[in-house]
Write a structure and sequence with these properties.
The protein is an alpha/beta fold. It contains eleven helices and 14 strands. Helices cover about 35% and strands about 25% of the residues. The strands form three sheets. The chain has an eight-stranded mixed beta sheet with strand order 1-4-3-2-5-6-14-13, sandwiched between helices.
Length: about 350
């Protein structure tokens, strides 16, 4: 089935900004990382596409290969099983006319594996709103929903739901918040758990959904260090973790002694912060310019590319309550690692 013709609404603040070249943003983020001004701020740049058959930049392909090769990466597989088999415990069967909104809809695979099983519990879906910064993801999610229910009204938002103004249709709104966004908040362990950022995001989602809105979210609640580290120790994950430096060499103005092959990936678990840091470590001394800034990196020096926070359920429920959410209920997957939580305003 062809992708649907889609009228996309742009977020209020997003539409007022000038379009900036992607590599300019990438350069700025990498400079901030290497000068230790920001921490865990470049995760989104890891999913890069190759430009030719011999291109060493292949983050997107490595990630897809990793997902197919490992059974230890529980956030995906346990999350899909949890939503498919236990979402009905929380939702039941709904007959009330309801508009579904998908915050950070992600890829076609995510919509098929997670959103469609939730949609099955609603007998009278009046429409669907995918919300994402990626126009491609909006098209793919809309196509999946249209294939499942031909002719359903779709109102897509190309926006940052944490920042932009989003006005959903009036009536009963049910939000779906799946994926790793809430786990990938910037910061280093010394900064503490990002409580304020989590509460602020939950306040924003509540305001979008309205006074009688509901929100179904999943998140990683695992606290077992062994299984956490095992999920990121596959060779393809290690290769994916260091591949971002190949993109630096390919796309950015880097001069001097910079070696994209002299880095290794290490996952580091900080139990008290519930924080898994995806770090990259220099394997030798380097002295180079990135843009107009000089960086002298010592062997063994590490940088946090991205975070994967693992939030205990009782903590997440406490933060959601502080954000103004009322009734809360949750279920866990069979391994007690992934949580699925339903909240009403």
């Amino acid at each position: 089935m062809a992708l649907p013709q889609l009228a996309v609404i742009h977020g209020a603040s997003a539409s007022s900004q000038l379009v900036i070249d992607e590599n300019t943003l990438f350069l700025s983020d990498m400079q901030a990382l290497l000068r230790r001004e920001r921490f865990a701020n470049v995760g989104s740049w890891q999913y890069s596409d190759s430009q030719s058959a011999n291109d060493p930049v292949r983050g997107a392909r490595l990630w897809e290969r990793f997902l197919k090769a490992t059974k230890d990466y529980y956030p995906l597989y346990d999350g899909i099983d949890l939503i498919k088999n236990k979402s009905g415990i929380l939702i039941g069967q709904r007959n009330e006319p309801t508009w579904l909104s998908d915050f950070g809809c992600g890829s076609k695979k995510a919509t098929q594996g997670k959103v469609i099983p939730v949609k099955r519990h609603f007998k009278n879906v009046t429409g669907y709103s995918p919300i994402d910064k990626s126009h491609t993801f909006l098209l793919e999610a809309s196509s999946v929903i249209n294939q499942d229910q031909s002719g359903i009204p779709i109102k897509a938002f190309q926006a940052d739901y944490a920042e932009d103004e989003i006005k959903l249709p009036q009536g009963k709104n049910f939000g779906i918040f799946f994926g790793s966004t809430i786990s990938n908040i910037e910061g280093r362990p010394e900064d503490g758990i990002p409580t304020d950022e989590i509460i602020s995001l939950m306040v924003k989602l509540k305001s979008i959904l309205g006074d009688d809105g509901e929100l179904l979210m999943d998140y990683d609640a695992n606290q077992d260090e062994q299984s956490i580290l095992a999920s990121y120790m596959h060779e393809l994950q290690r290769e994916f973790g260091r591949n971002i430096m190949q993109r630096v060499a390919r796309d950015l103005p880097v001069f001097g002694d910079f070696d994209p092959n002299a880095w290794r990936y290490e996952p580091v678990w900080h139990e008290k912060m519930h924080q898994l840091c995806h770090t990259i470590v220099s394997e030798r001394n380097m002295d180079f310019y990135l843009g107009d800034e000089r960086f002298k990196i010592a062997a063994g020096e590490s940088f946090i590319l991205n975070n994967s926070f693992k939030y205990p359920v009782e903590k997440m429920q406490e933060w959601c309550e502080q954000a103004g959410w009322g009734t809360q209920a949750h279920v866990m997957d069979n391994h007690k690692r992934m949580a699925l939580q339903l909240m009403a305003a």
